[in-house]
Structures are given as C-alpha cells and as structure tokens.
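Re: that chain you flagged

S.,

Sorry for the slow reply, it's been a week of failed gels. I finally had a moment to sit down with the sequence you sent. For the record, here it is as I used it:
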Amino acid sequence: MQNSNIYNSSSFFETEEGTIDAHFTDFSNITCQRSWLCLKRVKRFGQWWIVKGVNPQFEPRAKAQEMLDKEFERCMTLWHPSIVRMIAQQEVPTMEGRCIIEEWVDGMSLDAFLATGPSVEVRQDIASQLVETVRYYMSKGATHGNLKASNVLITHNGSRVKIIDFEPESTDRQADFATLAMLLRGLRLPRKFGKVIKRCEHGKYSSAEKLHLDFAKAKKKKRWRWVLPAIAAVVAIGAIAATFLWGRQSQQTDEKKLPAGYVVDRIAPAGTSQVYSIVSNADIYWLPFDSITPGNISETIAVDLGLSVKWSKMNMGADHPSVNFVGSYYAWGDTTDLGKWGGIDKYWPQSKPMPKQSISGTSIDFAHLRWGGKWRIPTLDEWQELIDRCKWRFRNAGDGAAGYVVTGPNGNSIFLPCAGLSDDGINMTDVGRFGYYWTAKPVADGKRMAHYVLLDEGKILADQTETLERLLSIRPVQ
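Prediction finished late last night. Pasting the structure tokens below so you have them in one place:
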C-alpha cells in the first residue's frame, strides 16, 4: 500500500483487492430536520459515510458554521459504541464550509424499529443500552438536548443503539432525563420499570449513575417471582433422582453447573469486611463499592482445581450490581487506582522503568496488595496451565454475564465471566462478549505494556499484549 495521508482527497490507494478511491463519490441527499444543516451520504475508501455541512440556503451561514463547529468539538471526544462516531472535520467538494465526517449507520429509527414488533427481551435490551449511553455522555459532562426516537437509530445487525444529532448548545440534564423517560415509555417495558421511568419524568434523578443503578435493580426483580418455585422444583427433582440412584456408586461430574444468571438464595455476613451470596453451587463475593483496602479475603473462596495454584471463585472488585458481579477493572501495576481517572502518566510516567520479570506477589501486584494473605495476580504460565489442563465450556448466562465454566482435573470448577473492559473505570464495553484478564508478565522490550488472556466464545487466546492503562479484569490465585 502507498504511504498516504487518509485525509488527502486527491489520491488513490492500492490494495491487494484493487484500487480504493480516496475521493468523495456517490453523493446522495438525506432528509434533515434541522434547517441549517445539509446531510449527504457519500462513499470514500470503499465505505459509506455521512457528511454534515451547512445548508447553503440558510442565513446567516457564519452562525450555522459556528454551531456545526461546536457540535464537532463536543462530540469528537465521545467514544461509545452507542454514539455515532465523528471521524473528522474538513472541506468536502460541493459542500459549504467545514463539514463533519461521521460513520454511516445501517439501520432504522427507533420508531420504525418498534413498528416491526420486537420481543420484550429486545426492547428491554435497547432500554438498557439507552440508559447506559446517557450515563456515559453525562459522565463526560455532555447533554444531548434532542433525545427523541428519530435521533435513536437501531442497527439491522444485532439491534444495537446508535444515538445521533447532539444539540451543540444544550446544557439541560433534566431535559435529557425527561426525553429518555418518553423513549422508555415508548419501548413498552414490563411494569417493574415503572418507578424508574416516573422518577425520570418528574426530575427526581440528580445523576445518570443513580438512574443506571436503579434500572439495573429493576431489571433483576423478575427473578424473585420464580426463585422459590424453582427451588421447590429442584428439591423435588433431586428427591426423585436420589431414589433412582440409591445404592449406586456416585460418579463425579465433569463440572459444577452454574445458574443461567445469578440467583441469590440468601445473603449472610462473612466477617466484618465483606458480604457474600450463596448462589446455587457457587459463592459470589463482593465488597462495598467505596472500599479502599478491605483486608484479607477469606481463603475459603480459593478453589483447588488440581493445579499448581488455587484459583479464586470471583474476579477482583465483584462488588457492583450494575455489571452482574463481573468485578471491577484495573490498570496493570497500578496500586493507586489513579490510572482509572488520570491515565497512565498518573501512576506510570515515562521515566519509571518497566519491570523485567513477573510482578506476581510483589509490591506492585494489586491483587496481593488489595486482598492480602497469599493472594496474587496469576503468572502467564499459571494461566497457560489453566488453559491446557482444564475443560472449558462456554455458557451464555442469560441476564448475567456469559463466560466459561472451567473444570479442573479433579472435577472442581470455577466460572470466568466475559467481563469486558473499561477505558475510564466507569463505563464498560464488551460485557458478556469477551473477557480480558491481566497476567503478571510485562512485555520484555521495556514498553509500557503487559500480557493478558482473551476469552472469546469458542476460543481462549493466551499471551495477548495491551498497554498498561487499559482497564482489564484480575482473577487472583494463591
């Protein structure tokens, strides 16, 4: 391929498949509800884009250009899978002034999508995406200002939310809450969400984080309707099975099956620093959200899989109900948590040398520092042993995070959720799709990078590398 600037519109790119035109071509008009804007779909580099420019018929054009510049300045920093991504701002042939180039969404408006009759599960998933997206952009200090069904697109592939057209001068958070409530009402959600929607409508939320947590709690309420009958049914089935199996030598199963979603049977204290839930065959622990140093974590959560180390039953920080107990996210070698809020230079500046060997059990091992005792972050070799010697079975866990049941040579099992990752410690991506787990091994060439293990449906990839500030999961061992 020729080495060219991607924003140079006067060239072609040579690839193995042929020539890719860097010019803007195939212009087609798109209906725009704002009189000062002109929207066109164009092709460039073999892909479709949206070009947003000033309507040449609008006066004063200078004011319209100023509004367009403000929209780009506001939205360029918003990186979220449910917000249409702005790529660049530049002049485009046949268009007026500096135009915004943004991604093209192959989808339809929310109103058109609802007319197709989606299931309640799909509508609830869209509601979750909307609430999460509002939480994200408000955490960045932004507001939308025109959050309505025509500005919410649903992709044809996967029914994913894409929010468009942020108003450049909007500052009213409560207006966004009110219009979000209208969208949630239009989704015809189950009654358990009624209280959350009413609080949105009446301006009762001071933060989107509180709204997000309330929505997550409402989402879980359905479980209590069937948990007691389910327990009774399990007991009855168990009694029948015991009658047929009486006298036979019990055989050890190849895995301890976990529930399809975490169903809490009871909650009981476990010392002074933690609370735990008994969840069928698994113990799921979590800590208060504001805990800094909880002290030693009980060794009873260490599972002997018949390997060289025992593995914890939970990820570090499995304390946040809005992420279904998948745990928290950590920068590699960060014992301060400053990386979550200030980036890599806050805790690992360029002048700080990288370690040459494993940090497991050292002073910069956050698992060892936070949990105490013999707990530590696993080495790459210990992860490889888990991969090579255990049976891995992918489970799609319904409302909870999907992940792998990992069964050791001795028949004992742990569950590794596909917990996703985070870039800022607040917003998560890929939850339920991929798992990203730090190892203790730094990259050998001295770069600010370390090795991690990637969990994907159908494959587990060891020895991946990532920059230190990326926030991944940690599964401690001892």
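What I noticed first: Residues 392 and 406 are 5 Å apart (CA to CA).

Talk soon,
D.
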